[in-house]
Amino acid sequence: MTATLEPDPAQGQVVITRFHCGDLARLLLVLMLHIRVKRDVRRHASGFLGIKLLVEWRQRTVWSISLWRDLDSVYSMGAVSRHVAASRVPAKLGVSTSCDIFCHVGEWTRVMFGGAERRSGPGSRTGE
């Protein structure tokens, strides 16, 4: 019997954005934008938990992986004026971007193996 997995937007979100820059100069500009914007996001976006940038130097690609408390937190980025302005820059530079948002769907053993739901771990609000 396969367990039904239902997304739970209140249990956390992972946002992965890919910036294919094409050349080193544009890659460095994208990195500088992220460094400059990160401080404002930490201050003004509710529910922002952290970000990790990964760089594929040979492919001239930057991956931004951010963690958010819930889906409403992701929408709070619209209130960060520096991020709104910076989000327009990659297209002007000719940098292609794509983004995916991943929603919590359950505890890992349930997702991987169809086991019974447990209420402990990172997604648990009770800490049981």
List the helices and strands and how they pair.
Blueprint: E1 13-20, H1 24-44, E2 48-56, E3 61-68, H2 71-75, H3 81-86, H4 89-93, E4 96-103, H5 108-113
Antiparallel strand pairs: 1-3, 1-4, 2-3
Protein name: DUF3291 domain-containing protein
Organism: Micromonospora viridifaciens
Description:
- The protein is an alpha+beta fold.
- The chain has one domain (13-106): Alpha-Beta Plaits, CATH 3.30.70.100.
- 34% of the residues lie in helices and 26% in strands.
- The chain is built from five helices and four strands, in the order E-H-E-E-H-H-H-E-H.
- It has helices at 24-44, 71-75, 81-86, 89-93, 108-113, and strands spanning 13-20, 48-56, 61-68, 96-103.
- Strands 2-3-1-4 form a four-stranded antiparallel β-sheet.
- A hairpin with a 4-residue loop joins strand 2 and strand 3.
- It is globular and about 50 Å long.
- The model has no long low-confidence stretch (mean pLDDT 88).
Keywords:
128 residues; alpha+beta; Alpha-Beta Plaits; four-stranded antiparallel beta sheet; globular
What general form does the structure show?
Answer: globular
Elements, N to C (H/E): EHEEHHHEH
Number of helices: 5
| Whole-number mean pLDDT | 88
Which class do the helix and strand fractions yield?
alpha+beta
Spans where pLDDT lies below 50 across 5 or more residues: none
Overall number of strands:
4
In CATH's first tier, which class applies?
Alpha Beta
CATH T-level fold name: Alpha-Beta Plaits
Radius of gyration: 17 Å
Query: What number of domains?
Result: 1
List the strand order in the largest sheet: 2-3-1-4
Helix content estimate: 25-40%
Distance between the termini: 26 Å
- Largest sheet data: 4 strands, antiparallel
CATH architecture, by name, is 2-Layer Sandwich
Quaternary: single chain
Give the strand content: 25-35%
